[in-house]
Amino acid sequence: MKLAVITSLVAGAAAFTSTPSPAFKTSSSTQLFAGPFKAKVQYVPCIATEDLPAPGQATSGVAGGLAICIAVDENGSVYALGDKCPPINQPLSFGRVAGGCIEDPVLGTKFNLKTGEVEGKWCPGGVGKLLGGLFDPSGVPVYPVKTGKGTVDVQVDVNAKANFESQYWSGVLDAQGKANGKYY
């Protein structure tokens, strides 16, 4: 029975590590995902200004097809980070903002609001102690953000989603409808 449990845990962890994830840059002025489309960096609306969370909290939004975490620190400064928290991609926007960092609500890792880098221990809490040993520490992407005209705008590569999706397999049963990825 113990062997079965250990085997299940290892297989579960391998499921997360078997597919290499693309590396990201912490500056939106470079391509997030390699692909056939050239990077096109611009400010795009993410959330309405009225939806900004209270200081010390975060919320989620979408900008250019990318999941974005909008965090507000104790002083009211607004930050934009990728909303996928490594190593298992749960939403970072559920985290608590304090001391210039946002804390992963599940595994306990703290990420710097300005750089996206890990601050302190990697995966220190609960199940994070088990999972953290299987993965190298990695940060989250950060994006320039500005508020005004009723929206919070985030500077992203608007072609990042298309480049990511260009890596999908295109075959008989692809989601686009035709085997060559074109629509009917």
What attributes characterize this protein structure?
single chain, 184 residues, alpha+beta, 4-stranded antiparallel sheet, 13 strands, 30% strand
Task: Write up what this structure looks like.
- It is a single chain.
- The protein has 184 residues and is α+β, with helices and mostly antiparallel strands.
- It has a domain of 109 residues: Rieske [2Fe-2S] iron-sulphur domain (Rieske Iron-sulfur Protein, 3-layer Sandwich).
- 15% of the residues lie in helices and 30% in strands.
- Strands 2-3-4-11 form a four-stranded antiparallel sheet, with no helix packed on it. A four-stranded antiparallel sheet has the order 7-8-9-10, with no helix packed on it.
- About 8% of the residues have low confidence.
- It holds the Pfam family Rieske_2.
- Keywords: 2Fe-2S, Iron, Iron-sulfur, Metal-binding, Nitrate assimilation, Oxidoreductase, Signal.
- It comes from Ditylum brightwellii.
Topology:
Layout: H1 2-17, E1 41-48, E2 57-63, E3 66-72, E4 78-82, E5 84-85, E6 90-91, E7 96-98, E8 101-103, E9 110-112, E10 118-119, H2 128-132, E11 142-143, E12 145-148, E13 151-157, H3 160-165
Antiparallel strand pairs: 1-13, 2-3, 3-4, 4-11, 5-6, 7-8, 8-9, 9-10, 12-13
GO molecular function: 2 iron, 2 sulfur cluster binding; metal ion binding; nitrite reductase [NAD(P)H] activity
Signal peptide: 1-15
Keywords: 2Fe-2S, Iron, Iron-sulfur, Metal-binding, Nitrate assimilation, Oxidoreductase, Signal
